[in-house]
Design brief:
Largest sheet: 4 strands, antiparallel
Radius of gyration: 19 Å
Helix content: 25-40%
Number of strands: 6
Distance between the termini: 47 Å
Order of helices and strands: HHEEHHHHEEHEE
Structural class: alpha+beta
Strand content: 5-15%
Oligomer: single chain
Number of domains: 2
Shape: elongated
Length: about 220
């Protein structure tokens, strides 16, 4: 078990940007947070440092609360976090999970981080079209776009969207309980920079969306 963060480190975490979790500090200070797995260094220039999910949880803890234990340091403090607390977009196959303001903040933060990744990885700084990460993580990327737009995922207890893979390269299928839900999903994905088309299953007649990240 690693030592808890110092008072100075807690102040750095509290001062991180509210949405993206971008940190400010000296290289030594930032690397120290990385060794505690509370921050990670972005692999692309300008190589800024951002809070990990554990860092976000620590920042959102009530004032005066005992700092949560920190796991053993990672072998590479600059690598993205691998802990089980990483945010996961809901693709529509999960059991009902925690909702409310806490989940809304997580989704908002994840979507803002993805937009920042778009800005940093596109040569023109555009945030209007998907980035390379989204092309290699199609299902969670589409699910995040839907959840960030306010669409509700399907659960074992309620209807909603469901995102799954497809036989077409660089595309996912999106299903919803009714035509209104499907139309809302199409609008959300289009606004998020995805190409969307509607199709009908030959045998059942059920309609679904085929969505792929837009390149231009």
């Amino acid at each position: 078990m690693a030592r808890p963060p110092s008072a100075a480190q807690l102040r750095m975490i509290a001062a991180a940007e509210s949405v993206t979790g971008r940190l400010r500090g000296t290289p030594a200070q930032l690397a120290a947070l990385g060794r505690l797995r509370l921050a990670f260094r972005h692999p692309r220039p300008p190589h800024d440092w951002f809070l990990t999910p554990a860092g976000h949880r620590l920042r959102e803890a009530p004032r005066g609360a005992e700092p949560p234990p920190v796991t053993a340091p990672a072998a590479d403090p600059g690598a993205p976090p691998r802990d089980t607390g990483v945010f996961a977009a809901r693709v529509g196959v999960e059991a009902p999970g925690p909702g409310g303001p806490g989940r809304a903040r997580e989704v908002h933060s994840a979507w803002a981080g993805l937009l920042e990744m778009r800005r940093m990885t596109h040569t023109d700084g555009s945030t209007e079209r998907p980035c390379g990460w989204e092309r290699t993580h199609l299902i969670p990327a589409a699910a995040l776009a839907l959840e960030a737009a306010g669409c509700a995922p399907r659960t074992t207890e309620s209807d909603g969207y469901q995102v799954a893979g497809s036989a077409q390269p660089e595309a996912v299928t999106v299903r919803a309980a009714d035509s209104d839900g499907l139309r809302a999903c199409a609008d959300a994905l289009t606004r998020a920079g995805w190409q969307v088309s509607e199709h009908k299953e030959p045998r059942t007649g059920h309609r679904y969306l085929l969505a792929s990240p837009r390149r231009v």
